[in-house]
Every structure is written in C-alpha cells, then in structure tokens.
Amino acid sequence: MILVKLGGSVITDKSKPMTPRMDVIARLTQEIADSGQQCLIIHGAGSFGHIKAKQYCLKDGTSHPEYKQGIDEVQMDMRKLNTMVVDAFHAAGMPVASIPAGAISVFEDGELVELPANIFKHYFDIGITPISFGDVVVDRTRGVCICSGDDIMTYLAKELDIKKCIFVTSEDGIFSHYPPDEGESPIPEIQHGQDISFTSMNTDVTGGMERKLELIFNITSTGCDVTVLNGLVPGRLRQALDGEEVIGTRVRGGI
Ligand code: IPE
On the CB side of 10, how many CA atoms lie within 13 Å of its CA? Predict the structure, then answer.
C-alpha cells in the first residue's frame, strides 16, 4: 500500500481562488492508474481551501463572527475540488471511494485524535482506492479546525503501518537553501532525524521547511520511506510508484 499526497500547489493554481489545474489532475491520476499500484490517495486544498480558511480564521475555531458561513463554504469548496479529482480517477478507469475528513475525524486543540483507519483499509481490501482530503473538521476544544492532508498522511501512515509515502509537490524536492539556484538539484537523500540547516532570506520559508521536514520525520519514525517530488513534471510520480530512481528527495525511514 502506497500513501500518495497530491499537494494543493500541484492540483490547483494557489495564486488564483478556486482554480484547478485540470490537465495536471488528469495526468497525475492517469500516472497512478497506469502504475497498477494499490494506493491510498490524499489531496490538499490549494486555492480551494486556504484562502477562505484564513479569511474565516477556521484554524482557530469559531471566533469569527461569520464562522458558520465559513465552515459551509470551505467544506463545499473542498468537495468541489474532490469531485474533480474523483472524476479524473474515473476517467483513468479507477474506482475510488471518497472519504471526507470532515465527516469522520475528530481533533482536540488542533491535533488529530480520531480517524477510523479501518474504513480506508476496508475499501483498499476490496480493491477500491480510498481518497481523502484536507477539510474543516470538528475539534472538541476549538469547535472546528483545519485538518490538512499532511495530518491525514501522518495519521494513516502510522495506523496502517505504511512503508512508502509520496508527497507530490510543485517543487523538485527539498533544498537546503531557498530559493534554490536555477537548475540546482534537491537534496537526494536524507536520513531519518538528520539535521538539515535551511537557509533563506525569508524566515517564513525556512520555518516552513523545518516544519515540513519535522512532519516527514514523524512519518519516517515508523520505518516508512518518504519521497518528495515534483508533480508538475510528467512521469516523475509514475517513476516513484514503479520504485525507480526519480529526481526528488528521499527520506529514509528509520526505527
Ligand atoms: C488544507 O489542506 C485544507 C484546507 C485549507 C481546508 P492541505 O494543507 O493539505 O492543503 P495544501 O496541500 O497545503 O494545499
């Protein structure tokens, strides 16, 4: 079983509200279908989630005066994006089961504490590809919060004892300094827990990368291998699914 996250920056144009990259969605779903690998798919939000989630402060709960409207809109927008991804899988000939995190997960103060992994496993076992996505979810402390696709990846990787995760992003992999030079290759391999010092003029970027690697280490701590690759380049996801060497960053699982 391979866990694949289709990042929001790949399947949507993050700079324009509600703008899917239909050609990229179609190609990536086809690459997954053609690989013949049994996968579990998670996708991000991109411009279908982050803009309004921020506008209505949904990460922090129900403090915004119009939070009800916000929950309704973001959940609806995410389901629209999910339908596009599901339609693309159908066009590629793959039966999928959509499992919205907002319907089945529980958070406590921003932390994912309940997600019935057995539902994903069950669909998987009967040959249907489960697909979930970042969403607005119930939070026992805050009322609601935002569940990212990464939260779902981390949780399921542990619960289902996954050995291989692929993060499909809009960059070639993880670099040690940002922005990378033109034509520069990403760090090809990182060992679990390895100390990487990121440099950038922009502390947001370094903080973001440190957090991303921390999250990946959370996954690799169970022995799972993680690959970060660029889904905007045709064929790379397919290569990784086939177990071939691919341009990207591989983070080795370690126990
Ligand atoms: C965010 O999910 C979900 C919402 C904002 C509703 P992700 O955090 O996984 O989305 P991307 O991949 O970064 O766009």
Answer: 29
